[in-house]
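This is your field. Please look over both lines of this record.
***
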Amino acid sequence: MVSRRLLRIKVLKEVYSFLNAQNTSHEAACKTLSYSIHKTYDLYHLLMLLVIEVNDYARQQVELGKQKKFPTEQELNPNTKFADNAFVELLRSNIPLRNYCEKQRLSWRDSPEVVKKLMALLSSTDFFRCYMDNSSRSFVEDKFLVIQLYSELLEDFEPLLMAIEDQNIYWVDDVEFTISQILKTIKLFRHDQSNETPLARLYKEKEDELFAERVLLRATTNSAAYRDLVDRHTKNWDVERIAFMDIVIMVTAVAELMEFPEIPIKVSLNEYIEIAKYYSTPNSSVFINGVLDRIVEELKQENVLVKGDEKLAPE
């Protein structure tokens, strides 16, 4: 589930913390990194659970309407299309989702207002009205409604973002990525699949499990040397005008370049340049690109950075 891009961002944050706190150990940094990665997986399951909670709320409202002392005609004969949504029912019966949430104690029990307000927001949308007004019922249509809920409503839904921030500081920056992974999962669901069908794995590939830790260890262990390298190639710049995050990004990029000879230089550089666009100043990506290009040329000339089947020269 977690992508290399997300892993790089999480490593970057730990390197930032490490360089800002001289007493932080390599072991503590790795432990925090692992915790952060696994909390993203928690968020994936928690947000998957949200549509079930919204559906449960809709069902409760239908029943409450029927139980009124003087129910209206609409309350006596409610439109239960969403309450009976076949895709949500399939998700509700998914054993891996239920087991994981129970094991990690994930629920929306303490955030009833999020569920209530999301149901209200969903009910106000044109796509929900069209869905409810269409008398036909199909798994495809039910699934598409859920896709619309996740893709169009959640990312900017303030009550959700506030609740997530209150629960865990590591979740705030992961919402957009997590929603994208949920959408990928939903699109793979079939109406006839088993209730034991697994959801997305935490790591896409076995190698990803060690990737982030190796970059972090290389960056923290050699932070002084890499910082000196960056300083040499920015000596004509006013140090106070260089964003600290730019330095962190370049130190982390050099760590990846040196740690993984099998990853092409262009791939690593492009990743950190893209990350800089979101996590540093508007001009940082161009600045970082120029500095890293010069650093790479120096390392190549010194024969300490060799890619492909060649081995890295010892440091």
Remarks:
- Residues 155 and 176 are 6 Å apart (CA to CA).
- The mean pLDDT is 92.
